Amino acid sequence: MKIAVDAMGGDYAPHAVVEGAVLALRKIDCTIILVGDREVLEPLLARHSHAADRVSIKHTSEVVRMDESPRKALNVKQDTSIRKTFDLVKSGEADAAMSAGNSGAAMLAGLHVLGTLPHVDRPCIGSILPTTNGRVVMLDAGANVDCRPHNLVQFAFMGHALAKYTLGIQSPRIGLLSIGEEAGKGNDLVRATYKLLRKSDLNFQGNIEGRDIFADNVDVVVCDGFVGNVALKTAEGVVQALGTRLKDEIRSSIFGRFGYLFMRPALKRFKQRFDYAEYGGALLLGIDGIGVIAHGRSNPVAIMNAIRISDEYARIRIAQRVKEEVESSAELKQSFGDKVHQVFEHIKEKKFEMDTKESTASEKGD
Amino acid sequence: MKIAVDAMGGDYAPHAVVEGAVLALRKIDCTIILVGDREVLEPLLARHSHAADRVSIKHTSEVVRMDESPRKALNVKQDTSIRKTFDLVKSGEADAAMSAGNSGAAMLAGLHVLGTLPHVDRPCIGSILPTTNGRVVMLDAGANVDCRPHNLVQFAFMGHALAKYTLGIQSPRIGLLSIGEEAGKGNDLVRATYKLLRKSDLNFQGNIEGRDIFADNVDVVVCDGFVGNVALKTAEGVVQALGTRLKDEIRSSIFGRFGYLFMRPALKRFKQRFDYAEYGGALLLGIDGIGVIAHGRSNPVAIMNAIRISDEYARIRIAQRVKEEVESSAELKQSFGDKVHQVFEHIKEKKFEMDTKESTASEKGD
Fold this sequence. Notes:
Oligomer: homodimer
Distance between the termini of chain A: 45 Å
Strand order of the largest sheet of chain A: 3-2-1-4-11-10-5-6-9-7-8
Largest interface: A-B, 83 and 82 residues
């Protein structure tokens, strides 16, 4: 597989990206196109002559910075590394695009260059996370901050496809992230989405709570991008806080330090399992091609794993698989669409009641 | 201090609650009123004759179950343990109310019986969580699922007061939970709230991300109750998953088991620090009196700690402190109120633009 890598994206780019790409070439049977400033990249790559035959550089002169507005940056800058990375997928020169840069810009570039799949209004970010005994698909992990119920239903369909082809589960269990298991629990968005998913022919398990994400109760966790991103980063923060604290506790006594010598392999396996650097990247779902975004703080190991994931997604042609799944449920979606419409009508009436009752509904959620 | 305890509330009630109350009487200089069915509670209490002089029973005949709609249950049932628990605070017979039962019912009962503080539209749940090196106040932890910007601003003021009097910080650093640190990041609610908090004279630090909750960057985390509850339970789930996994890794090798013998004290301190059972309960903020809600799954140790926390809140008269803080900023709130109004006007216009553009805005978030 050929992987186009945005060499200028990420907090430690381009150094960490080049190092990660070189690591990937050692471990994975793929070729890599590094996209970015040739003058910067060539000297970095020159240190690794053994990699020379399977890596090339595609020159671009501009970069979308992490703190830039993705939309503005992509409008103004015509020759950015992130856009060119997706261009290579569009033209067929690469099988997948990977970036550790501004994830909003990656989403937008992917969307503009590759377009969306049929039946998908808004693409989203699908993450695969380690659980107590397995893995779980979570989406949206951060692309869409204010969603409507039918967006979440589309995420559920795409999550179904992702879990089916990456976790190998024929009928993945879908859970809706809420704050209680009962049907009536949650905010307005979740309560309306619940009704729609209940009527779909997905294997919908109902609401789940935050603690269920890692408990192997479901295979797919559906939520809006704001909630999903907060949950993901909270989990990351807890892992980090626990790690630091555990280290401190162990160091605080001579017995602890002695015991650590024996437990090191176990602790290392443990750390590996929950370290984002081992997990690689999240998939842009709903675009017509493969795009993987890695953590902004990616070190070379994280970059290598994101390239590995990109290679795997390219091998199973995940975008095509998702497309087939979504299209095969078109008939279902037809009848389903009517139900969506009915529920929306109901919501409109309810909303109107609220308007007249409080006459402040326009402030709501805004 | 006299603590009224809802003896019928919680997954393991009444047994765990009675056991926890007895434990608390051993460790804490307080008296306890157990509220619930006398016929059930008397035999449980009879086993602990040493506690007899500092515990009494207040009889009630009804219970709000965990799966009941709080509003309906409290409307229909007139003699519930949760309502009576707050009645005892209202009448001055108790200094604080504590329940591990249906937290929605506890919030509603507290609200109806004790009323809200001036300048507070909606009470919320304030949790104090362990961080890498200290503690952080998080609110709302689950009471209000669909919020408006001014609700979050009020949460921030109450969080300021709670952090000031429990963490002992004169000017607590306030963070707004979002999905990026820049001002423009977040959903509509967060972006509008950011503008309001920026104009307040709170020590507002801007947006924080999920991973910052536990990183000691701020003293107060402000969010709506849906997001707060998801974040809290996600954190709980991660702690649980990591604990299980760590145990498995340690057990999987003879070296691991040997090392564990030496590390046990360190691991125990570590577990204690992040175990919810050690943390007791969350405070109902914005009601005119003290109410503490404990985890539904509370075991006797968790109940004991929730009673300990209730006793501490009663000693520092936290409700009165929050009231003073909110009232003392009344002048500020006056001028501040105008700004709130201006921002809302702006939002209304923006919303109107969206309505006319998409003519589907009524589906939004609903």
